[in-house]
Amino acid sequence: MGHQSIRETIFLFLKGLFMGSADIIPGVSGGTIAFITGIYERLITALQSLNVVFFIYYLKGFKYSAYKKKARESFYQMDLFFLLVLAAGIAIAFLTLANILGFFLETFPTYTYAFFFGLILSSAAFVYLAHKKIFHHWSFILFVLLGFIVGYGIVGIETVQMQHSYIILFFSGVISFCAMILPGLSGAFILLILGQYEFMLGVLRQFTRLDFSSLLFGVSYLFGGIVGLLVFSRLLSYLLKRYRMATLSCILGLMLGALRKPGEFIFQDPMQPFITVFSVLFGIILVMIFTYYELVVKLTSQ
């Protein structure tokens, strides 16, 4: 592996860290981070490339040699290295930030949500600027409005109380993982709505203390999430290929609608205005750093 490949792997791992950091926070989307770091469409394509055919061919290859070649061809069709490095970053972020984020949200909630507000707002601006060439048709406004209404409505849903059974956690995983890869929709917030967020955060905290008494709950949630990703990524990939302008417009609207959650919190629980504004600006600057890096990489690669 050359220096360029090592550097790209490190940056991909860091992007996974930031995605995981966002996905564990109610109100912030890991899909947004994937978008502003330039890996969103590759992520969707990589998820779509995953299939069970490889495992079938691989197992049959022990008995029939002809299937070994098919298994090898199926394996190379999948972008597994990309997904594994990204998943490693996300997993480490989940395990290390489960306690840290709880501290910040409990101790400095307004400043934390102000940071999220700046992050989402500037991310929406980046989506528009990066794809403004296709946002020329009048229907662009309609699709943005549709996405805004959906995003605004979802983040305003009140939390429901549900049991923490394996089946409930499985379906919670399906829904929240689908939200995780949609910019503007927070998988953690969906968990919060379903009444599973604090329970799953507690499971993560147990894992960090090497307490695996709730392992089956975590497995049920993760298995549901994998099923959700495999199904939903195919739908997203299809929409991006066939209805690119409409899909990106709805995503932009979702991100703008998602501003409701941090915005309401800032106004309902105001603290020192200077630090709040600084937190918003810090979120904006962080996105600018990401987008600048992506711009430099694209220019130097051309």
Give keywords.
mainly alpha; single chain; 78% helix; 302 residues
Short description:
With 302 residues, the protein is mainly α. 78% of the residues lie in helices and 0% in strands.
Walk me through this protein's architecture.
The chain is an all-alpha fold. It has one domain. 78% of the residues lie in helices and 0% in strands. Helix 1 runs antiparallel to helix 2. The C terminus is likely disordered.
Number of distinct beta strands: 0
Shape, please? Answer: globular
For the sheet with most strands, the description reads: none
**With helices defined by DSSP (H or I, 4 residues minimum), what is the helix count?**
15
> Fraction of residues in helices?
over 70%
Average per-residue pLDDT, rounded, comes to 79
Q: How much is the radius of gyration in Å?
A: 20 Å
Question: How many angstroms does the end-to-end distance come to?
Answer: 22 Å
Low-confidence stretches: 298-302
Strand content: under 5%
Q: What structural class is derived from the secondary structure elements?
A: mainly alpha
Number of domains: 1
What is the succession of H and E elements? HHHHHHHHHHHHHHH
